Every structure is written in structure tokens, then in C-alpha cells.
Amino acid sequence: MSPETTPSTSIFSIIPKIYWSSIGNLPILFIPLLIMKNRAAGFSSMDIWFAAAFLALGIARLLDARFFNPAAPKEIRKYFVMLTVISGGMLAAGHVAAAVMG
How far apart are alpha carbons 12 and 81 in whole angstroms? Predict the structure, then answer.
């Protein structure tokens, strides 16, 4: 008899899901805007913060899928592809706009 894989109902199971699905995306949006505002066309400390936010999103998604809300590997891959493409585009747009402005 194997245990069923049902989503956890613990309050701690909600934290990673809220982070990767909403709150954690805010730095991915706002750090490129800060790069534009500060006209940081080259590599800066904001890029390190952006990388940390990107990694935190990925880790939160993996934790959620592994321990709290099981997800198919296909869904995880789809999330990581979308996260990488959108994040990379946002970061590139911030640097290009900073170079054009400054």
C-alpha cells in the first residue's frame, strides 16, 4: 500500500507557493526598472540581486513541487523555461534601456 500524493494542508505549504507564484516575481519586475533608472548599462550589484531573485524563485518552485504540491516534471520544466526566458528578457531590456538613456 503506497501513500497517496495529496497536496499538504500545512500553513508552511502555502509559503513557497505564494512566493514563487506572486511575491517572488516582484524583484524580477522592479530590478530591471532600477537598472534603467540608475542607467547601469554594465554589470552592477543589481545584476547580482537579480540573479539571487531568479534562483530564489527556482528553489521555491522546486521545494513546492517536491514537498508540498507534487507537480509533473513537464510542468516544472515549463515553469523554468518561462522563468528563464521572461527574466532574461526583462534583464536585457533593462540594460538596453539604460545604455540608450545614458
Answer: 26
Segment 34-41 shows an average pLDDT of: 93
Residue 65 carries which side chain, given as an amino acid letter?
A
Q: What is the pLDDT of residue 90?
A: 96
* SS3 sequence of 32-44: HHHHHHCCCCCCC
Predicted pLDDT of residue 1: 43
Domain that holds residue 67: 13-101
As for how many domains the chain has, the answer is 1
Residue 4 included in any domain = no
Asked if residue 1 is part of any domain, the answer here is no
Is pLDDT above 80 for 18? yes
Q: From CA 60, how far away is CA 46, in angstroms rounded?
A: 21
CA–CA gap between residue 20 and residue 86 (Å, rounded):
14
